[in-house]
Design goal:
The protein has helices at 17-30, 55-64, 70-73, 82-88, 95-109, 131-138, 151-166, 184-197, 217-223, 248-251, 265-281, 305-310, 322-330, 341-354, and strands spanning 5-10, 35-38, 41-42, 45-47, 52-54, 76-77, 112-116, 141-147, 171-179, 202-207, 227-230, 241-244, 259-264, 289-295, 315-317. It has 2 domains: 5-210 and 337-359, Rossmann fold, CATH 3.40.50.300; 215-330, HprK N-terminal domain-like (Udp-n-acetylmuramoylalanyl-d-glutamate--2,6- Diaminopimelate Ligase, Chain: A, domain 1, 3-Layer(aba) Sandwich), CATH 3.40.1390. It is an alpha/beta fold. Helix content is 40%, strand content 20%. Strands 2-7-1-8-9-10 form a 6-stranded parallel beta sheet, with helices on both faces. The protein contains 14 helices and 15 strands.
């Protein structure tokens, strides 16, 4: 299949744009395409000293094994203060020129370019670089990613498509992400019906996958402004379930893998004893804990050190109480990054299994 330029947009943040882009790049390469990547407009960046680039561009350079060049793969960064500076002195900035320069280099070296959008379609409008503006400038075809549902999904999709229609940018398909497995058939029926009425192909439905929503201990540490006490080298541990120390005996551990224990220091010893007991009774030899959050004032019980060290459990202290910690953790928006290779692999599998790229014309 020969493609030119694809622009991956989304109806809003956190619907799976990066996940979908990863899977699409993987699938296109597997089909024999020479694929280049660019994040034309970024908001969240990593500063590597001599290099400042969007964090997604860094992820893709690792995944696609290319030498990251910010001017090519992440030409525009709208960091803090960028928009007000632009509004004060628009003549000082040539963002559009920077994007065209990047596009020219990519087009000279690849047969297919995948451009990843930013936020919802209107993001970037303040500097005349909305997702629709950029796609139009690049001459790219748009794939829209939406979150699974029916009524709200169609409402958001219709609003988002209007910006691209206004710019006469072709939308060649829709990917519906994070669909509840028990709603797949119903969502497919109604969204197919709607999209057919507006002559846009439904490329596929991606079932919700909990593993892609599991945060890592490092993200949790940052969310609660925590301090690592032990086993900092294991902050890549992923967390599936949270259990409060005071409730260990009531829950009796429904799960025995990737648990996060959130507990005050004076309850830590008791909580670990109960966890060991329930794991033993269930025939689980390894510790089910991915991490421990110590809350309130810290009094580190030395009795637990051997268990924590032996099982490679990162121990993090926060000044928040248990309730406040759980609330903060529950609000984490989980993103794929270079520290989550299992998520990259799973994203590729989901796109390959559920999206029909032959529908793109």
């Amino acid at each position: 299949m020969k493609l030119d330029k694809l622009y991956i947009a989304a109806t809003s943040q956190h619907v799976g744009k990066t996940t979908s882009t990863l899977g699409l790049v993987y699938a296109l390469r597997k089909m024999g395409n020479d694929v280049g990547y660019c994040k034309p407009v970024g908001q969240e960046f990593v500063d590597l000293g001599s290099l400042r680039a969007d964090k997604d561009a860094l992820l893709f350079s690792t995944f696609m094994d290319f030498q990251l060049d910010a001017s090519v793969h992440s030409p525009v960064i709208l960091g803090q203060g960028a928009t007000s500076n632009f509004l004060e002195h628009p003549d000082r900035y040539n963002y559009a020129g920077d994007i065209r320069h990047a596009s020219g280099i990519l087009e000279a070296n690849h047969e297919t370019i995948v451009y990843e959008g930013t936020g919802h379609p209107g993001v970037g409008s303040v500097v005349n670089l909305s997702n629709a503006d950029v796609a139009k400038m690049l001459g790219a075809k748009v794939i829209m990613v939406v979150k699974g549902g029916i009524g709200n999904t169609i409402d958001r999709l219709q609003m988002s498509l209007s910006l691209f229609r206004e710019k006469n940018v072709p939308v060649v398909g829709v990917i519906v992400n994070k669909v509840r497995p028990d709603k797949m058939e119903k969502v497919h029926y109604y969204l197919s019906k709607y999209l057919k009425s507006i002559n846009i192909p439904l490329l596929g439905l991606i079932p919700f996958d909990q593993t892609l929503s599991n945060p890592m201990m490092n993200s949790i540490k940052e969310a609660i402004n925590g301090t690592v006490i032990m086993n900092a080298e294991y902050l890549d541990n992923q967390v599936e379930e949270i259990i409060a120390g005071s409730l260990v005996d009531r829950q009796e551990l429904k799960y025995f893998k990737n648990l996060l224990l959130v507990v005050s220091s004076n309850r830590l010893e008791e909580a670990i004893r109960k966890i060991k007991f329930f794991a033993y009774r269930a025939g689980v030899e390894e510790s089910p804990l991915s991490g421990i959050i110590l809350t309130n004032e810290m009094e580190h019980p030395k009795w637990c050190d051997e268990y924590i060290r032996m099982n490679k459990i990162p121990l993090v202290h926060t000044k928040l109480d248990t309730f406040g910690s759980v609330v903060k953790i529950s609000r984490i928006e989980v993103k794929i990054n270079t520290r989550t290779p299992w998520k990259v692999k799973r994203a590729c599998e989901l796109i390959e299994q559920n999206v029909n790229l032959d529908l793109i014309c």
